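Hi there,

I know you've been waiting on this one. I reran it after we fixed the sequence typo, so this is the corrected version. Both the input and the resulting structure follow.
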Amino acid sequence: MKNFRFLATASCLIVLFALAGCGVYSFTGVAITAETLSIQQFYNDADGGPPDLAQTFTNKITDYYQANTNLALIQDDGELQLEGAVTGYRLTPVAPSAASGDFESTAQLTRLTITVQVTYINTEDDSFNFENKSFSFYSDFDNSQSLTAIEAQLIEEIYDQIILDIFNASVANW
């Protein structure tokens, strides 16, 4: 019985490795037949935020696609193409609390929301294309913290989720 389980497990592993090696399936769930990707420099069209907001996003999304696909990154005219802009950087108060000793209320938390607008072109199958699609995410922080002290961390958290959403909408087809 142990030999049967071993053979069954070994057979399953061989099949999985064979599927992963053929380039049609990967363990991230991404089925891509394209070989090239071009990501244009995203530009900053947001009011506020650090001046390198768009450059940081471009670098992070490029790194993510390179780490999670076998696509060759080329300058222009890839079989898959991404471009867009950071269009929103907004701070809004959330979770009001009563101020001590009077009837005024103040916000206990502030929400940083970032929006990125993306155009995706798949030259192999235009049914997957989307134009100027907005992706947005937020992170809340306590008002006792200085935004300048935690801004880079918040932006990274928000960008990680936005990039995952873009990846799923484009090459993962979710």
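Quick highlight: The domain at 34-170 is CATH 3.30.160.150 (Double Stranded RNA Binding Domain).

Best,
R. S.
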